[in-house]
Amino acid sequence: MTVTTHSEQQTADVGRTLATTLVPGSVVLLVGDLGAGKTALVRGLAEGLGVAPEEVSSPTFTLMQEYRGGRVPLIHVDLYRLNDAREIDDLGLEELGLDTVMAIEWAEKLPRPIADAVEVRIDHGDGDERRITVSSSP
Ligand code: ADP
Ligand code: MG
Prior knowledge:
Blueprint: E1 2-5, H1 8-19, E2 27-31, H2 38-49, E3 64-67, E4 74-78, H3 85-90, H4 93-96, E5 101-105, E6 118-124, E7 130-136
Parallel strand pairs: 2-5, 2-6, 4-5
Antiparallel strand pairs: 1-7, 3-4, 6-7
C-alpha cells in the first residue's frame, strides 16, 4: 500500500491508522532518509496505541525509549548512531519486543531481518510531499 502525504500531521495519521493493526510482538521497520518523517509516523503510532504522542521525541541520542499508558507499550528505537552490526545485535531487540509494539528507525541497519515485521518506507517528494509504502517485510 502506498499513500502520499503533504504534512507531518498526515504522516502521523498514517501511523495512527497502522496502529489499529498492531498487537503485542508487532514490529514496525521504518526506512527513509533523515527528515523523511519516520519519527512523525511513530508519533502517530503512539497516538493510535493510546500513548500521549507528545512523549514521542526523536530518540536519536537515547537510542531507545519505551512509552507506556497505551493499550500496548511502545518501544521506539533509532539506529541512526549505530554503525556496527555487533552493537546492534547486542541490543537484543528480538527478545525485547515480545510484549510490546516495537518501532525501529533506520531499520535498514539491522544485521538480520526480523520475522513478520511491517516495513514502512518513506520517500521524499517535492517540498512537503512524502510517499509512504507499507508492506510486510521480505
Ligand atoms: P525522521 O525521523 O525521518 O528523520 P522527522 O519525523 O523527525 O523525520 O522529521 C520530518 C520533518 O519533515 C519534520 O520537520 C516535518 O515537519 C517535516 N515534514 C514536512 N512534510 C512532511 C510530511 N509530509 N510528512 C512528515 N514530515 C514532514
Ligand atoms: Mg527520526
